[in-house]
Amino acid sequence: PPFRITSIGATNQTVTLKWESASDRQYRVDSSPDLASWSALATNLTAAGTNFTFTTNVNGDIEFFRVYRVP
Q1: What are phi and psi of 15, to 5 degrees?
Q2: Quick one: which of 26, 44, 45, 35 has its CA closest to 66?
Q3: Residue 53: its pLDDT value, please?
Q4: Which residue has better confidence, 2 or 33?
């Protein structure tokens, strides 16, 4: 089944992403400065329950994020 991001927050230089997850499923978070080129920001994120929270620091430049559920 599809999953969805439930919240996105930014405080100072910290970004928090929350999404619906399935226990023991792995996820990856990618980032992009321009929506054209993407880089893996975090890999092998294993969910322990039905919601996952990921927090990272950003350097002040505009960044975009996407969450990928690993098959």
Answers
A1: -115, 135
A2: 35
A3: 97
A4: 33
